[in-house]
Amino acid sequence: MNWLLRHGSLLGRRFPGRKGTLAALVCAVVVLAPSIAMAVVGTAGGTVPIGTTSTSSMLGVYGNVSIGTSYTGTAAPTNGAIIQGSLGIGTTSPANALDVYSGGIRVRSNTPSNTSNALYASSSTLYFNGGSISGNSWYTTGGVNIGSTAAPANGQLVISGSGGSYGIIVGTTGTGNPFKIFAQSYDHLYLGANGSAYMMWRGSGSGTTGWVGVRYSSISSTIPAAAIDVNGSGRATSYVTSSDRRWKKSIEPFKNAMDKVGRLQGVNFFWRTDEFPERDFGTGKNIGLIAQDVEKVVPEVVSADGDGFMSIEYEKFSSVLIEALKSLKAGADGVALSFRTAESRVAEREAVLSRQAAEIEALAATFEGQRREFLDYKKMHP
Description:
The protein is α/β, with parallel strands linked by helices. Helix content is 30%, strand content 22%. It has a domain at 88-141. The strands form 8 sheets. The protein has a 5-stranded antiparallel sheet with strand order 7-8-9-10-11, with no helix packed on it. Strands 12-13-14-15 form a 4-stranded mixed sheet, with no helix packed on it. The chain has a 4-stranded mixed sheet with strand order 16-17-18-19, with no helix packed on it. Helix 3 (257-263) crosses helix 5.
């Protein structure tokens, strides 16, 4: 073969012009025809090298490859390939740009022993560095971030919006914040189902304060109106209120408690449930006070929400009632003291009367003795 190629080249130089070129071409065809024929018809051992003189594969390309009528004029990446149509591996009818049938796909770094950033698909399971996805299951030893390119910590699920300004973080790295929720505007969080009442959280926007509402169907800049705002009844085994002296200043006794209690009016009533269905009022008969009336007497226990509806802090009435009871007790103690004083005076009068009665009785006895002596004297001296 080498002899024919060498002599074909010599013939080309010996006979310049068309004859030399034809002689060289004939020699080349004689040499390459068996390999080309075997490659085309798939004969074992046939190879086709392109851009090189030899290849270990049936088709060996030294450089890049462009496939497709629209791609032939476009240079493929160095030592790479671009394909206009679909590529089927293990199938004669690819349904997608890349269709792998009965096999797997593996993507890894250029270091065979390095498994970081690896992606491997086999059958119905997709494996990646530290985890896998199979059917409806997803497993990972790392973290997941949705909506942001920031790397999450291991075991952390981060769901964030534009610029990370709102979303959910589950499993934060901080020991005191295992679950965080961020949102825009009022930082709303709703918990509910099928349009029923919600448990909700409303932040201040600055993140410095927040309110929790229970059994509300909507949220606004004024609802919830308290740190914990329950639209309905509540139950607890105990309830405590902060009251340390070290937190307070300008302390002074509550005055005129009895007078103020006397000006309050306890009432029976029914809630206007039909007119305010969103408030979840009960339907039974109730007892209590009217906030507008209480505000005129004890304004310290009355407050209003953003819509102007008023509420009463009934637990604060304990201070009013304590002072009123103390005033009542002081009055009762005064009456008891007066009674004891009067009783003592009566006892003294009774003692005086008893002495006087004894004296009278003694005088009567003396008079009786003298009367008998007189009668006896008259009998003896008629």
